[in-house]
Design a protein that fits this description.
- The structure is a single chain.
- The protein is mainly β.
- The protein has 4 domains: 2-141, Beta Barrel (OB fold (Dihydrolipoamide Acetyltransferase, E2P)), CATH 2.40.50.140; 157-242, Nucleic acid-binding proteins (OB fold (Dihydrolipoamide Acetyltransferase, E2P)); 254-344, Nucleic acid-binding proteins (OB fold (Dihydrolipoamide Acetyltransferase, E2P), Beta Barrel), CATH 2.40.50; 347-431, OB fold (Dihydrolipoamide Acetyltransferase, E2P), CATH 2.40.50.
- The chain is 11% helix and 46% strand.
- The protein has 5 helices and 25 strands.
- It has helices spanning 2-5, 14-27, 34-44, 105-109, 409-420, and strands at 62-71, 75-78, 84-94, 97-104, 119-126, 134-141, 157-169, 173-176, 182-192, 195-201, 215-226, 229-233, 239-242, 262-272, 276-279, 285-293, 297-302, 315-325, 331-335, 340-344, 348-360, 363-367, 372-376, 385-393, 396-404.
- The strands form 4 sheets. It has a 5-stranded mixed beta barrel. It has a 5-stranded mixed beta barrel with strand order 7-9-10-12-11.
- Strand 2 (75-78) and strand 3 (84-94) form a beta hairpin.
- The N and C termini lie far apart (97 Å).
- The relative contact order is 0.07.
């Protein structure tokens, strides 16, 4: 009874809960046991068990039955206060879908007692900032039977309305369908206190007039959920309305990223590797790049985004990225399909800078002899001297106007002489 009381302990005292259970048993003439009576009381109080498909991120507790599909070994870690912790994940499924269950400390240490195919009853709380993920408060094995298809259920679709903040909007792009028809697709990343999701529309005018950072209500979209995250697909009836009240969104901390799940994080680049070209299984050419934020968390960027310029010391934001263990057993975040990454700009300062255009490891840059600035847009001539009128943000320079500075042959001769004979001054006079 104490197990089910956890579902209603915020609205009912233990004594009242026990009394109602006794009344239920008496009402049914003793034909039901305490567990069945407790379930009836919980249901009357509006806290009945849910199907996995119906579970949404909310501050309320959730309760459900799930068949154990996969169990991961417990993993020990050290908390910020120096204490030791343990975490494990179990994938549960029913006829409507699947969901990750996160177990902490004592429950995580006992995860080896769970067998694949067994059914457990769960009381838990959706974790703020994660999608379709429940953190267990109480778990117990049951005799309930759940039948699922041979293929693990991964997704479901339904019409949905959502209030969210527009976090990022991609530019419209052309897409060739399998039937050869050319269509236009546009994607965005949206977020609310529960996490973020991908929004897709085949009608780019739907996002016209919508800017990043605003809060909106999206109505009539089709919702899909899987172990790779949540996405909303625009339908003919989908509409986007601006909201006056802001919708909040928060990032996960880098130390919270475990070996499975969908995360959005923000951090400072501490080291990065150059992009590397490779051939996909389809025989196509693509790119991959590794960088690290806030020390130990590896970020793997796939596709054309791996060729975008990044600099050590810059702050980046990553949305809707999938966590996994790499071949070395380390946790990494994979920025691929359905994910987004961007550099957070520093304060902008208008500057006039003279320098020479060179090719750096991150692309076209301006060297003024002391500093190196990445050029945006990169359409100037290499090995050419310019006077740039633009805006500096960190080590990036947005060019508003570029004035070519002709090279003075006499000055070049003086500089060459100084290099070959250090005893000569810039004027060419020996001291």
């Amino acid at each position: 009874m104490r197990f089910h009381y956890a579902l209603v302990d915020d609205i009912l005292k233990q004594e009242e809960f026990d009394r109602r259970i006794e009344e239920k048993i008496a009402f049914h003439g003793g034909a039901i046991d305490e567990t069945a009576a407790a379930l009836l009381v919980v249901e009357e109080l509006g806290r009945s068990h849910q199907k996995i498909q119906a579970i949404t991120n909310s501050p309320s507790l959730v309760s459900f039955f799930g068949k154990v599909v996969q169990v991961t070994d417990p993993k020990e870690f050290t908390r910020d206060d120096g204490s030791s912790g343990c975490v494990a994940r179990v994938e549960l499924a029913d006829s409507t879908g699947s969901i990750p269950l996160v177990l902490w400390d004592e429950m995580a240490a006992g995860v080896s007692e769970l067998e694949e195919g067994s059914v457990i009853e769960v009381i838990g709380r959706p974790k703020k900032g994660r999608m379709t993920e429940v953190h267990a408060l109480a778990v117990r094995e049951t005799s309930v039977e759940i039948t699922i298809s041979d293929e693990k259920p991964r997704s479901f679709a339904s019409s949905a309305d959502i209030d969210a903040q527009i976090l990022m909007i991609d530019s419209p792009r052309t897409f060739i369908r399998r039937d050869g028809v050319e269509v236009i697709i546009q994607e965005a990343i949206i977020g609310d206190p529960s996490g973020c999701a991908r929004f897709v529309t085949w009608e780019p005018t739907l996002l016209e007039g919508i800017s990043e950072g605003v809060s909106v209500r999206i109505t009539g979209a089709k919702r899909r959920s899987s172990d790779k995250g949540v996405e909303y697909i625009a339908q003919d009836e989908t509409r986007i309305l601006l909201l006056d009240d802001p919708i909040q969104f928060s990032f996960s901390q880098t130390h919270e990223v475990m070996e499975r799940g969908i995360y959005s994080v923000r951090g400072t680049i501490t080291s990065l590797h150059p992009p590397r070209q490779f051939t996909t299984r389809r025989g196509e050419s693509s790119w991959v790049r590794n960088l690290f934020i806030d020390g130990p968390l590896r970020i793997v960027i796939w596709g054309d985004r791996a060729r975008e310029p990044f600099l050590c010391g810059e702050t980046i934001e990553i949305y809707n990225a999938c966590a996994r263990l790499n071949r070395y057993g380390d946790v990494e975040l994979s920025v691929g399909f359905g994910s987004a990454i961007r550099v957070v700009p520093d304060e902008t300062e208008e500057r006039v800078i003279e320098g020479v255009i060179i090719l750096s490891s991150e692309g076209m840059a301006l060297s003024d002899g002391k500093n190196l600035f990445l050029i945006e847009p990169p359409d100037l001539l290499f090995s050419t001297r310019y006077r740039i009128f633009g805006r500096v943000s960190g080590r990036r320079l947005v060019v508003d106007e570029a004035e070519h500075i002709p090279i003075d042959p006499g000055s070049l001769r003086e500089r060459a002489a100084a290099l070959t004979d250090p005893s000569l001054s810039p004027s060419g006079v020996r001291h």
